[in-house]
Write a structure and sequence with these properties.
The structure is a single chain. The chain has about 500 residues and is mainly alpha-helical. It has a domain of about 325 residues: Farnesyl Diphosphate Synthase (Orthogonal Bundle), CATH 1.10.600. Helix content is about 60%, strand content about 0%. The chain has 17 helices and no strands. α15 crosses α16. The longest helix is centred in the middle third of the chain and has 27 residues.
Length: about 500
């Protein structure tokens, strides 16, 4: 009984994805900080624990409702994606049987209702935003997720609504001149972050019929599009420094820190010399998970000051880093895929090519096919897969080299049709039959004694015509007919 309860709790915890759970509440508080700081210029007030006129209940709602909506999105999203996850991520709670689909739906609906209930405590007008967010979550999971850039855009819209929601819970009349620009910042930012998240799921999305931007246009195009969206978000945030009500210096400092983290994340998927693998795309998104907390903290610093923002954001960053390091990769990749927390590239698994597909490689856990090419770059300089040669390759290469060497030394010999006959020909050529009175060949001295001696007057061997005198040069040999030569040349060793 206790074991079953522990497994059920573990399934719910994995569904929550604790490493992402701090973000929506922090964005809600960032919106509240913009409205609360503008109402009092950032100066402390007796009605608010951080400054301004917002009460503790209002700030609690600004954090709790987005967090509950986020949980609802996870439950409902996993329910809608259960068939796709059964193909590419069978270790997740629903496809693995640890969480039933019915339980996921019930929990998702309850979280949505709880978000609506707490919203009434602060500002009932914000119920429209909660309803819109729930509709967006369902639309994203059912329709827009597999429709290219529109799915990433709706993901950004949901975060923009969170900024507006936080502002509306803290003030009946939010300062829209400050709230709207930062809502646009998070819209572009989360569209970019969500797009980076799709880079690691190309094979699963393709097999499930999801036409995401990486599936439609390739990894490089998707990565560049995400980078442009991110640059737009940072640019709008930088231009909005004069709009922050309390601490523009603290806001600018944290914004620079967020931009540095974001630049590192995108360098992983944009550098030409690096092949974008699922593990590398996940690493980039892991950095963005941390970066977006810093960005939300920067906006909070603009409303309440850097000290308050650091006190709130710091512990959440620690929790996010620890839980992400412990849980993230096991949630994203099946155990038999070869992806581990300590390896960027799984052993024996080929990398994605620049067009966003495994051309002849595995798909999340399937054994890789026998590699046929161990080059490291194609003629355009793009990185190819580097894999070990299959067993027996070196032996076959040595045998082939020996055969070609023998054929070169004995010019005029017709190549055989199969590898087996090539090997037999090489052996027979290395062990020629000697005529009485002739000296052994210098090219194969070790095999002369092993070859059976032909009787005087008998017909010469087909594989080694009789020689008249030892010579360092290749002996002459009757050339095959033109038809035979063409036929043999069509199937060289």
């Amino acid at each position: 009984m206790a074991g079953a309860m522990a497994r059920a709790c573990g399934a719910h915890l994995r569904t929550w994805r604790p490493y992402t759970l701090a973000y929506p509440g922090l964005v809600g508080l960032a919106g509240a900080a913009l409205a609360d700081g503008s109402s009092s210029g950032g100066s402390p007030s007796g009605g608010s624990p951080v400054g301004g006129g917002a009460s503790g209940v209002q700030l609690l709602v600004a954090w709790a409702a987005p967090t509950l909506s986020w949980l609802a999105a996870h439950y409902l999203g996993d329910y809608f994606d259960r068939h796709l996850d059964a193909i590419s991520k069978p270790q997740r709670p629903i496809p693995s049987g640890q969480l039933s689909p019915r339980t996921a739906v019930v929990c998702g609906v309850l979280c949505a209702l709880a978000a609506a209930f707490v919203t009434v405590l602060a500002n009932w007008r914000a119920l429209l935003l909660v309803a819109g967010a729930m509709a967006g979550i369902v639309a994203y999971s059912l329709v827009l997720k597999g429709r290219g850039l529109s799915g990433n855009a709706i993901r950004g819209v949901l975060t923009a609504l969170t900024v507006v929601y936080g502002a509306m819970t803290a003030s009946a009349d939010p300062p829209w001149q400050a709230v709207v620009p930062f809502a646009l910042v998070f819209l572009a930012h989360d569209a970019a972050s969500n797009l980076v998240g799709t880079l690691r799921d190309v094979e699963g999305d393709r097999s499930g019929g999801y036409r995401t931007l990486p599936v439609l246009r390739g990894l490089r195009v998707a990565a560049r599009t995400a980078a442009l969206l991110y640059l737009g978000a940072i640019a709008v945030a930088a231009l909005s420094v004069p709009l922050v009500p309390a601490d523009p210096v603290g806001f600018a400092a944290l914004l620079v820190l967020a931009a540095v983290c974001g630049g590192f994340a995108f360098s992983l998927v944009l550098r030409r010399e690096l092949t974008v693998t699922p593990a590398l795309a996940l690493r980039a998104h892991e950095v963005l998970v941390v970066e977006r907390l810093v960005l939300a903290g920067a906006v909070m610093a603009g409303g309440w000051g850097a000290a308050v923002a650091g006190a709130v954001t710091g512990p959440l960053l620690v929790v996010s880093l620890l839980t992400q390091a412990r849980m993230r990769r096991r949630h994203e990749f099946p155990p038999d895929s070869g992806f581990t927390a300590d390896a960027e590239l799984p052993p024996g698994v080929r990398n994605l090519d620049a067009e966003g597909s495994f051309p002849d490689g595995p798909s999340h856990g399937n054994p890789p096919p026998t590699p046929t090419d161990s080059r490291t770059a194609d003629r355009h300089g793009r990185a190819l897969r580097t894999v070990p040669d299959p067993p027996g390759t070196e032996q076959a290469r040595t045998e082939r080299s020996r055969t070609e060497r023998s054929r070169t030394e004995r010019s005029g010999a017709a190549p055989s049709r199969t590898t087996a006959s090539c090997t037999e020909q090489a052996r027979s050529e290395q062990a020629p039959t000697e005529q009485p009175g002739t000296a052994p060949s210098r090219t194969t001295p070790s095999r002369t004694e092993q070859a059976p001696t032909q009787q005087s007057g008998t017909a010469p061997s087909r594989t080694a015509p009789p020689r008249t005198a030892p010579s360092r040069a290749a002996p002459s040999r009757t050339a095959p007919s033109g038809a035979a030569r063409r036929k043999d040349d069509a199937t060289p060793c």
